[in-house]
């Protein structure tokens, strides 16, 4: 169970690794929590994935959909009495790139906002450093941006967990 005072936890994993369910379980069902969803439903398959995530969460979760301005969400909820789960940075970076936003500036703003948190935040992200180098510039841009932000958050986080096949491995911090 998560320490609900000031803390930053990064949960990494591959797609369908169980990282979101693990992050949700860190917070549990006993307390109100804010779920910041970054995914956008551009097709029926993604709509179904989002519905699955929503159905899995209990009634203690308040959902906020924010595909672009995570820094503002962090600032607005920095001193919140309830924990905040952001899921996921991969969808967020994808949104920024597709939306032709300044990824570097948005990343800088987000990292700066995290430095000032006074409550508990759990951030979910895909680990992108274990695959092959893509053959196209867009995919390489995505991997470079997400890899950089993962490293910046991991450096700040008290706890970093890697989830594979539903099994968590603590990379930094205590269990």
Structure description:
The chain is an alpha/beta fold. Helix content is 42%, strand content 23%. Strands 3-2-4-5-1-6-7 form a seven-stranded mixed sheet, with helices on both faces. Helix 2 links the parallel strand 2 and strand 3. Helix 5 runs parallel beside helix 6. It is globular and about 45 Å long. The mean pLDDT is 92.
Can you summarize this structure?
This protein is of the alpha/beta class. The chain has helices at 19-27, 44-56, 70-77, 89-98, 103-115, 137-156; strands at residues 7-13, 33-37, 61-65, 84-87, 120-126, 159-164, 167-172.
List the SSEs and their pairings:
Elements: E1 7-13, H1 19-27, E2 33-37, H2 44-56, E3 61-65, H3 70-77, E4 84-87, H4 89-98, H5 103-115, E5 120-126, H6 137-156, E6 159-164, E7 167-172
Helix pairs in contact: 3-5, 4-6, 5-6
Key features?
single chain, 175 residues, alpha/beta, 7-stranded mixed beta sheet, 6 helices, 7 strands, 42% helix, globular
Q: What is the overall pLDDT average?
A: 92
Strand content: 15-25%
Which structural class should the secondary elements be placed in?
Answer: alpha/beta
- The succession of helices and strands, N to C, reads EHEHEHEHHEHEE
| Biggest β-sheet description | 7 strands, mixed
Helix content: 40-55%
Overall 3D geometry? globular
Terminal-residue CA separation = 9 Å
Main sheet strand line-up: 3-2-4-5-1-6-7
* Uncertain residue ranges: none
- Count of DSSP strands: 7
